[in-house]
């Protein structure tokens, strides 16, 4: 049943500007206190957070060097076959070693005479009968000279042991700063339910009594949207974005040498941007509550809203199509979800405001 809109109800829900400031100060202080306690817990989980942050980067770098090894092998194989020289591995065997067994390799060339000398040095009682000089000249002419007589050797090593796929630290205090920031990220995640509770408690102070019950719905909804946005960035955006950016390294022939501090800045910005932007339905409902916009305005201006969403997605994410689309598409869906939310939870305002 809709409460009667009378002066007493309005009077009970009216707060002075000073009271709003006092309520805001208290909510911010409690939120900050909860954040500090969360960071204390985060100090014990900082190492795990650093490993979690580095995992997408190392995975993308491993894929980059694995694909590069396969491309180099195909080029080397075509060159050997064009010269009628033997190839030790098939494409299927190399692909299995790289993609399934997660092995990277380098191709080096070994001089058989040098290998012979090493064998004789290890076994001095052995003797080698040198071929006649004329026969040696015939072999060299047949094989195309000394360089063509070199034997290719594949040196395999596990991808996890390759220094190229690990981020670098170029100063002694840098890793401490990285660990400290990771602890802050963990603390933010742990304390986020309490922080969101304080935010919605402040919002509830300005609502009508019959509307304050919605805070119990908005709080888990807001927290869920924030975590959904951050998870979307981590699980769906990082890998395609990194793969896209690394294609420029591959095309220009410049191997990446990422620095962990630069990567951390990227990691922190993108999930936070996604988490905050996913609050769109609740922001729309709040604006509808205070009479800034209404459902009719949201429906009439949806084209402009979608355009603004794509522009903001381009600003809040790296300049690549994957991250822009991964943010813009969910936000567009959430925009229309916000319209539905405003329709299901209508405001109790006068006819003049409802028409707006």
Report what the structure shows:
The protein is mainly α. It folds into 2 domains: 7-56 and 167-355, no CATH class; 65-164, no CATH class. The chain is 70% helix and 4% strand. The protein has helices at 7-13, 17-42, 46-82, 91-100, 112-122, 133-143, 174-204, 215-252, 260-277, 280-289, 295-300, 302-316, 321-344, 351-355, and strands at 103-110, 151-158. A two-stranded antiparallel sheet has the order 1-2. Helix 8 packs antiparallel against helix 13. It is elongated and about 100 Å long. Mean pLDDT is 76; it is low at 1-13, 131-139, 141-147 and 349-356.
Give a quick summary of the entry.
The protein has 356 residues and is mainly alpha-helical.
Could you name the key traits of this structure?
14 helices; 2 domains; mainly alpha; single chain; 356 residues; elongated; disordered C terminus; disordered N terminus; two-stranded antiparallel ribbon
Layout of secondary structure:
Blueprint lengths: L6 H7 L3 H26 L3 H37 L8 H10 L2 E8 L1 H11 L10 H11 L7 E8 L15 H31 L10 H38 L7 H18 L2 H10 L5 H6 L1 H15 L4 H24 L6 H5 L1
Antiparallel strand pairs: 1-2
Helix pairs in contact: 2-7, 3-4, 3-7, 3-8, 7-8, 7-9, 8-9, 8-13, 10-13, 12-13
Q: What is the subunit arrangement here?
A: single chain
Shape: elongated
Average pLDDT metric: 76
Rg calc: 32 Å
Distance between termini? 24 Å
């Amino acid at each position: 049943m809709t409460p009667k809109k009378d002066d007493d109800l309005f009077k009970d829900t009216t707060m002075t500007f000073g009271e709003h400031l006092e309520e805001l100060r208290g909510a911010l202080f409690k939120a900050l206190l909860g954040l500090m306690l969360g960071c204390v817990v985060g100090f014990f989980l900082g190492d795990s957070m650093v490993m979690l942050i580095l995992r997408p980067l190392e995975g993308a770098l491993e894929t980059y060097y694995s694909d590069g090894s396969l491309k180099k092998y195909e080029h080397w194989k075509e060159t050997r076959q064009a010269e009628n020289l033997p190839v030790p591995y098939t494409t299927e065997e190399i692909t299995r070693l790289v993609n399934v067994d997660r092995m990277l390799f380098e191709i080096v060339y070994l001089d058989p005479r040098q290998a012979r000398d090493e064998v004789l040095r290890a076994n001095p009682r052995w003797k080698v009968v040198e071929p006649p000089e004329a026969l040696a000249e015939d072999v060299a002419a047949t094989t195309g000279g000394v360089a063509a007589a070199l034997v290719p050797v594949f040196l395999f090593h596990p991808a996890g042991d390759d220094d190229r796929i690990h981020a670098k630290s170029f100063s002694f205090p840098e890793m401490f700063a990285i660990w400290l920031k990771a602890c802050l990220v963990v603390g933010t995640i742990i304390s986020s339910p309490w922080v969101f509770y304080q935010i919605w408690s402040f919002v509830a102070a300005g609502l009508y009594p019959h509307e304050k019950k919605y805070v119990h719905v908005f709080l888990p909804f807001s927290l869920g949207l924030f975590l959904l946005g951050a998870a979307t960035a981590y699980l769906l955006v990082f890998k395609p974005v990194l793969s896209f950016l690394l294609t420029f390294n591959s095309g220009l022939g410049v191997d990446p040498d990422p620095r962990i501090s630069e990567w951390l800045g990227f990691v922190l910005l993108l999930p936070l941007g996604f988490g905050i932007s996913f609050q769109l339905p609740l922001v729309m409902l709040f604006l509808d509550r205070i009479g800034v916009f209404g459902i009719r305005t949201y429906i009439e201006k949806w084209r402009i809203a979608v355009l603004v969403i794509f522009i903001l997605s381009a600003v809040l994410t790296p300049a690549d199509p994957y991250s822009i689309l991964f943010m813009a598409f969910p936000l567009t869906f959430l925009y229309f979800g916000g319209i539905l939310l405003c329709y299901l939870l209508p405001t109790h305002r006068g006819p003049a405001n409802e028409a707006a």
